[in-house]
């Protein structure tokens, strides 16, 4: 399938306006003379001269192909970055459900205390308190934020300079379905504790969803009782869900930071859920350019295949979440065997222990899947954007009921 798009074909883009108003925001790099064409996100293309006309663009856009042969693009949906980063998030200030020794603060307090801010250069910082000495047993201030917007599928691309780590620290970047946990699913994209070096991806679901072993991902399946645990059911095995540990030592902790951070990408569609991580030097060009093409990224770190877990049924209405907690269910329970000094409670007292417990974020970009109907003619591949129903993409229930 993919080879089709490397042929020197002319692509004819046929746009017919009546059903396409939402698509008029699509933009294309139409400048002549450049070799690699892609959807250009930097400018807005306002089609002039309706009625419909054909626009020739060179082929080799960042087209992706579904297993059934149909084609699609990942198009920009939301960007969280810079001064406006925090505008579209809620600050969680209840007790930590994972029993962390943390005091999650509300929005005004988070800004007042300097736990969240945007630097002059646009870098977004979110951190646990690293200024206050605490009495033994007192919880440390930190933040947990959750996107106001909910998603049902998407490509989530997080560009970081640093992710939090350090003894007693337990951060996560994840998505969570509404309602009764774990019935609308949880996808943990970045998670780890202490000075770990390997990121752990995980899924927590309602009963009935399992990882497909021996599929193509580079990570190692997390074990339970000495066996690879394939069962993602969040209600058993101490709520651990099913997980995959990345092979790269630079996917979490000191080495990730030391290399200038990098990019984590989570793709969630009807074909499954996959996570890739790239340390700075290996971030693909299409990500940097804002035209992500997962088909170029190589084997993912972790994959939840659709065969044994319908990704549109087990994962519904997800908010994106960042948090940094301390001790608790994971960092507390594993502390004694982590190689960290003393006890988790003692560790919590000294603010100097939390200088690396911070997120430093360049951007979080969410892309949505845009199906494209195409057909092959003698010398041209024709896309008819308006044959694609953009509403289908964000309504998994329709697909879930109709297809599975
Ligand atoms: C935020 O938290 C602080 C400290 O707990 C509290 O005094 C303040 O009323 C809270 N603000 C809002 C808007 O809830
Ligand atoms: C895994 O990758 C190999 C080589 O790219 C491919 O032949 C095989 O079909 C893949 N298996 C699955 C389950 O996707
Ligand atoms: C998802 O959100 C939509 C819109 O708010 C709502 O109608 C639907 O019931 C939710 N689905 C589930 C499974 O909670
Ligand atoms: C913070 O990171 C620096 C740089 O890697 C390291 O030297 C230092 O020990 C870390 N501090 C803590 C408290 O983890």
Automatic annotation (TrEMBL):
The keyword Signal applies. Residues 1-22 form the signal peptide. It holds the Pfam family GH16_XgeA. Residues 70-339 form the GH16 domain. Gene3D superfamilies: 2.60.120.200. GO terms for molecular function: hydrolase activity, hydrolyzing O-glycosyl compounds. GO terms for biological process: glucan catabolic process. Keywords: Glycosidase, Hydrolase, Signal. It comes from the Eukaryota. This is Glycosidase C21B10.07. It comes from Hypsizygus marmoreus.
């Amino acid at each position: 399938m993919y080879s089709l798009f490397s042929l020197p074909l002319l692509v004819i883009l046929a746009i017919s306006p009546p059903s396409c108003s939402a698509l008029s925001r699509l933009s294309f790099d139409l400048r002549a003379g450049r070799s690699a064409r892609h959807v250009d996100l930097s400018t807005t293309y306002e089609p002039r001269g309706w009625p419909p006309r054909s626009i020739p663009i060179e082929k080799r856009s960042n087209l992706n192909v579904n297993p059934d042969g149909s084609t699609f693009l990942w198009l920009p949906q939301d960007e969280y970055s810079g001064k406006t980063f925090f505008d579209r998030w809620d600050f969680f200030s209840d007790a930590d459900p994972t029993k962390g020794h943390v005091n999650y603060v509300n929005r005004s307090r988070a800004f007042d205390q300097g736990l969240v801010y945007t630097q002059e250069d646009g870098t977004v910082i979110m951190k646990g308190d690293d200024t206050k000495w605490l009495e033994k047993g007192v919880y440390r201030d930190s933040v947990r934020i959750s996107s106001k917007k909910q998603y049902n599928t998407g490509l989530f691309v997080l560009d970081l300079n640093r992710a939090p780590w350090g003894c007693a620290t337990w951060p996560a970047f994840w998505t969570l379905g509404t309602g009764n946990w774990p019935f609308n699913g949880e996808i943990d994209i970045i998670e780890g504790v202490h000075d770990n070096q390997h990121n752990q991806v995980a899924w927590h679901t309602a009963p009935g969803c399992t990882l497909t072993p021996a599929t193509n991902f580079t990570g190692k399946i997390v074990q339970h009782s000495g066996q690879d645990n394939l069962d993602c059911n969040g209600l058993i095995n101490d709520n651990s869900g099913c997980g995959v540990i990345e092979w790269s030592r630079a996917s979490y902790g000191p080495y990730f930071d030391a290399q200038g951070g990098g990019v984590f990408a989570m793709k969630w569609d009807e074909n499954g859920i996959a996570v890739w991580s790239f340390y700075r030097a290996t971030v693909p060009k299409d990500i940097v350019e804002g035209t992500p093409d997962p088909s170029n990224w190589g084997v993912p770190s972790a994959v939840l295949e659709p065969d044994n877990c319908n990704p549109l049924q087990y994962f519904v209405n997800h908010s994106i979440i960042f948090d940094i907690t301390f001790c608790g269910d994971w960092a507390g329970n594993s502390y004694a065997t982590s190689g960290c000094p003393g006890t988790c409670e003692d560790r919590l007292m000294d603010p100097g222990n939390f200088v690396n417990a911070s997120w430093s974020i360049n951007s979080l970009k969410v892309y949505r899947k845009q199906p494209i109907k195409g057909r092959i003619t003698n010398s041209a591949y024709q896309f008819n954007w308006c044959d694609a129903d953009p509403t289908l993409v964000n309504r998994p229930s329709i697909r879930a009921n109709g297809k599975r």
